[in-house]
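ingest -> validate -> predict -> emit
validate: passed (alphabet ok, no gaps, 217 aa)
predict: started
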Amino acid sequence: MKRIECNGIGLLLAVGLLTLIATAQSQPQQNQSQSGSATSTAGPSLGDYARQIRKSARPEKPNVFDNDNLPSGNKLSIIGAAAPAEASVDTKAQSDANAENKPAAAKPAGPTPEENQAAKEALWKEWGNKVKSQQDQIDLLTRELNVLQREYQIRAAAMYGDAGNRLRNQADWDKQDTQYKDQIAEKQKALDDAKQKLDDMQEEARKAGVPSSYLGS
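emit:
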């Protein structure tokens, strides 16, 4: 009977000991799990956060060019990027369009007084040139007529001054006399026609308002 009681007590002690050992082993694992979850929930540590702030606040080192690292393929500019060419082209096109759409200045309905005066003076000069040309023609016909008349008078005086010569050359003289008279008559008619044309021209010019100073009278 005593042996059975000893065995039961030993069994209870063994069970209690195993329970203590199991409890002791599970307690560190639970503490380690709680510590890890707390760490992951709290986020990074204060040291990591401070290092990150210092890194982001650190200014970037500017590019410094010298003879060793000066680029040879690219162009350096100290005034910034140039404006796009399209902008200047668009501005010029807009300016041209505005100039085309701008209404032209209104012109006077008729010629100005200065233009009218210039047109009149041009017309007067044209009439003056015509009158002068006709007067020159009259002067030429007058000289030619005078030459014919003097020549005829000289031949007639020589013929009628020598009776013997007139008797010997009467027929020849009659022929020459007729020729001289016909030439003189034709020249006189041409001169008269030229004078009449000049008179008509001057009268027409006066009706057109041409001053007498432009007509040679």
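The longest helix spans residues 113-161.
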